[in-house]
Amino acid sequence: MAGQEWPGGPAQVRARLEETGYLVDEGLAIACFLALRLHRPVFCEGDAGTGKTALASALAEMLGAPLIRLQCHEGIDASQALYDWDFPRQLLRLRAAEAAGVNDPALLEGELYDRRFLLARPLLRALETSPCVLLVDEVDRADDEFEAFLLELLSEFSVTIPELGTVRAEVPPVVVLTSNRTREVHDALKRRCLYHWFGHPDFDRELAVVRRRLPEVSGRLAAQVTALVQTLRAEDLVKPPGVAETIDWARALDVLGAGEVDPALAVATLGSVLKYREDAERARGLDFGAVLAGLRV
After folding, report:
1. Does the pLDDT value for residue 108 go beyond 80?
2. For the whole model, what pTM was predicted?
């Protein structure tokens, strides 16, 4: 299926994604459908922990295709993202050739720059693996030069290696780019993509996600944790918790054997959901008891 035109519509994409345990709204389902039909990347922007990276995993599972991930960071360049030559192996081959009396420069160059000495990084692997899902994670951490390079590659889905020639994707990979918006990504890259903003879900949707991801957790515990996280997000926190933290908190409480939450246990396990001292101190001043008492489960 991944190497063919998607035969259904957005509703079918939504249903298939939900079969993997990933819940999507109509807008995201349409973006994913268009990405499959038009071979355009999906640019996912929003706070950390809102399900951007998980979308790529769900698409790979839905399509039965491998997931190839490129984790961006400050200073990343083409040699880290695309390909590099295996210099230690090339040096060993050169020494072996010299020991065997091979002195023809053209012959040596041809042997040294052979495909077997090429280290394929994620972007090249994605071009050579057909079909696949390519996740370019946290592109906002990379610099402007890398963005320009990425834009060119995603426009053609091909790259020229001077020593070997052009590598072109037989079937363009399904591409998901994510950004936590630590800086603004250039419009040129965004225009190449289908855009979707990932915000924090409302109570009902977040609870549905937790229940889907953690079916072993009691309904009452899942609802209580979701309500507490929704309350925390309403505060002026350094880092509001995402859905990933909601799932982590519910899982931690379940491992502790809790069938429900009380205020003392909620405070004791804040480290599962809040990662800044200032946020934890602020949370300890909240009336968790009132939140739990007002919840109807």
Report:
1. no
2. 0.85
